[in-house]
């Protein structure tokens, strides 16, 4: 019997005028590992909610057709029964923590099933050890690093022994190394437990580092492909729907290799690199040399910066960094090294324990410590990592126009600038919607739009491409590149090495001892000491 | 099997109580301006409480008020039980009318604004000018003129807070409720 | 940075080992009897007892300095107010009049008034050490489970746990929204005037409330997906069984309450009247 069956399913959210999912037919067999991929807003999370029963049980809307988990119709089964069959790790990591401590959070399902305390303690211990978070059991989930948060969430659903595991964008907040570890962990569990695993992701390259049985492609609320990874990579379906191909596939394609001739294309480690080497070498030799650096004048000096959230663990201990006018700077480093913290210090959200921030305003040098958050914001725009922390209005248009209104611009100018920015960010069709009807990736774009519209001198973007599909990301980055050419300085924080290679002209690698390396992106990638832990 | 899920408070109400009480607590602590009469503040938490009570009903209203006020008093060492209880009653009474106002259904027009404010002014006055001081006299044996003055000042300031903040929140919330089937890509 | 309600400080005293339910019941019982009784001897005895307990809980002055100052300030304000409004209230209560100062004017000072205000002072402070002990020796997670144990429905108990869980979150959210708004052009720092800052605070409240409403939806969905509310009972990971010390503490509390009630009989009412 199949584990999951969709039979002619349509779904329309209550507030929507049109259906979000159209005629979904899908069968997933027990023990399969399936990747669901598609652009932002294509309905992946919605599909996931139909599988775990949130639709129709807690999200309002109209469903036609039938969804079956095993032999149960999700319409008839209770959400409680379904949750025993399907364990869900939600897209938004913070919203799913309930317990005061990690241990309680993992035990939450068991508590509700009236499991006796000694057994509960033993099972929590067991799963925490298995996932490597036993040392964090008494910490609050809020204090965990991104990767640990995810393990906490995974332990909380694995402990139920459900047959089906559903991961909604498990990689969105992780650095490449932790992301790969997560995927490896999911794979290991899959091999041990033989359950059905469904992963929703746009970062196809990372998911495919471990074998997957099938890839379901979604676009505009429809399933437009159901193929094996190898078939997918040989076709150009990903490009068609605006998703990014793995870098090595792209490289092979650029190099003119015939992908149909390549064995094991889905597994980079099994690729016959010997055979491909000459073609690739040939391509590399032909690639254009990077343009020469131009001398730049400093815009922001960070000198001898000290900071720590508490006295015991300093994050910065004498950090020095200069951002130059016209830089397109990528700030990279592993999870928790302090990238977001640094931006929050620059913008005045946090105050350093010691050190100076000097801003070169024309010929004048301004000590940023004398400026309020608002005054700094007139020069420095900052897009925070978590979109939910920035959004304060109900409607999209109001949110994007807020900064302009506060600067006292007239209505016509505001409307025009807001509309232009919304177009760049691919949000124009939704301009009159409330923000809570948007998908995660769309929300992130709203926050980007709301700062872009202000056109500050220095723009700091914290993970601008998290949760974005390739098409939106390309549109946005192209626009940022244009802005940069017009003289706006940019610093973006990213875990995405493609993004760094393609768009940055300078990379700063942050390590535990401050700046580890400050060089051109290609140099950084070529330096194994730095790039291996990053990748 | 199915029936079990429908007994008692809904999960959404449980969560609303928890988060609502947290907000009441924080508003009491950081969002109040002293009036000059001892232990009596212009307290923004009542506007918020009335709003949440109108959304989540009488039980939620009572517990949010009681719990939020109690937690706040507890951190000062002495829960003033009579007033803690009265805050709960205020939330509960406003909550009784949640079906009437049907804020979730959208459109909170002039008529509803007026009736909400009539309701809240009466509730505030009865709660603070009658109930709380009378309980104070009965339980704590405090002098009548002192507690009634405190009550009158609180009643007025809480009615203002509820009138301004509560009404604004209700109107904005109702306006933000998206009409069924109204979202279209344009 | 964020404010911790339960300044829970994990130590190894017998008070830390008591179940939260025991401490809650003892606290409620004592604070109610102290609320009703007007017997200065009784109130003083409880105050001394709670100060001794306080010592035993290993709470340091630094942890409670601020709260104590607050409490002192408000108590004095209240005592003054009582005097200003009713300088003769003590006389009215105790039925005798031992004048110390003044004679005919409004503001007289009588022994009865002083004694009445002494009683009030004791009432204001008697439960303070108990409340602080309760806050600082009770693990918040265990507290929720103990509420359930003393008979509150588990749903309500859980909402108390959620309130404790979300106070720091909501607070840091307020802070974040405020910063995000400033970064868009609201001046809310010390450079703004008071009126601007008040207005700004209002502008933060609205997004905060809406963010909280969204959060209610997501959290309740996450809880539903993990079967909260499935059965009529649930177990608690942090629950704790009653030990002998719990029963002894409860017994002692009951005895004190009985003593308090017995004193009503002896004193012929709530008031102990030394003037007669
Ligand atoms: N609660 C909601 N109410 C109304 N419409 C919604 C709601 N949630 C999602 N939608 C709409 O449904 C569409 C699909 O959303 P969904 O969250 O499934 O996308 P997704 O593929 O998961 O995207 P992302 O990769 O950005 O998370 C979006 O266009 C969104 O506007
Ligand atoms: N509000 C806070 N209170 C205490 N510690 C914090 C706080 N915010 C972050 N930290 C800690 O400070 C360190 C740096 O965090 P930061 O968010 O700056 O890392 P990051 O480099 O941006 O990581 P990521 O790539 O995961 O976003 C982490 O160890 C984190 O746990
Ligand atoms: Mg999604
Ligand atoms: Mg970060």
UniProtKB/TrEMBL annotation, chain B:
Keywords assigned: Cell membrane, Membrane, Transmembrane, Transmembrane helix
A GO-annotated cellular component: plasma membrane
Membrane topology: Multi-pass membrane protein
Highest rank taxon of the organism: Bacteria
Pfam family of the protein (one): ECF-ribofla_trS
UniProt-annotated location(s): Cell membrane
Keyword Transmembrane part of the UniProt annotation: yes
TM segment ranges: 6-27, 48-68, 80-98, 118-140, 152-175
Keyword ATP-binding annotated: no
Record-linked InterPro entries: ECF_substrate-spec-like, UPF0397
Homology family: Belongs to the UPF0397 family.
PANTHER family: UPF0397 PROTEIN BC_2624-RELATED, UPF0397 PROTEIN SPR0429
Identification of the protein by name: UPF0397 protein FD19_GL001645
Provenance organism: Lacticaseibacillus thailandensis DSM 22698 = JCM 13996
From TrEMBL, chain C:
Transmembrane intervals: 24-54, 66-85, 121-138, 247-266
Bilayer disposition of the protein: Multi-pass membrane protein
Main location: membrane
Key words, A-Z: Membrane, Transmembrane, Transmembrane helix
Record-level GO cellular component terms: plasma membrane
Subcellular location: Membrane
Protein name: Energy-coupling factor transporter transmembrane protein EcfT
